[in-house]
Amino acid sequence: MTRHFLTGTELDRAELEALLARAAELKAGRGDGVGCEALAGKTVALFFEKPSTRTRVSFQVAVAELGGNPLPLRADELQLGRGESIADTAEVLSRYLHAIVIRSGSQETVDQLAAGAAVPVVNGLTPLHHPCQVLADLLTLRERFGTLDGLRLAYLGDGNNVARSLALMGGAVGVEVVVAAPEGYRLEDGVAAGQTADPTEAVAGADALYTDVWVSMGDEAEAEERRAALAPYQLSEELLAKAKPEAIVLHCLPAHPGEEITEGALYGPQSAVFDQAENRLHAQKALLELLLA
User: Active site includes 212?
Assistant: First the structure.
């Protein structure tokens, strides 16, 4: 049976923990070529509807380092851009490829692609979910604290795709996720996460403070409204001081210092954001091994 990775909930706790342990092995053994033949003879399409730095580069390098052939694609390079159906595209690509990674502006597109594909489909990002990012987040927490069970993560700002995936996947491995957001920006679809309007309450006793940009691609028309509503939720040194002394700062990047996070928090000694970015590569290598090797 074909396995997809669309929301992160496709993996149970044991599988998630095993994946993270394997990611740590791949990271430690990267210079020695650990896993370098896992995808030998296999081609993975990397289909991006939107610009991307970390997702595109980390997946392309991951496929190559696992011995596979990465095939970057854009929407304007396929007949999808001229009206071919997603179902027909999925059927055809399944005849050529061994997996498809897609970053899309539509969850429906990704779901339809997975429904029609006979090869694994990996959600690289949609407006509702960002599960590959959270694999890297969990790997970073595991590195810093040695365990995930019992950690408290405070997410500050817009209850977006990252917050949703953190709640879904973090909760599955014992991380308490608390989302601090104003009315109108909270997770409203029954995701099991603690929610509060008070950022100070969220960060109390937290092991990690996390934020994301306030204005994403597609939000530009309401940019000023969003900035005004979310201003009290800026991840600052003052809020960081209210968490545990060893707390770390997380951000999925790109960041806008002075908006959702202060420069001091982003680049200070408690920041783990670049370890987090690096870990996209290792976590995704472990994911591709799980789905394909």
Answer: yes
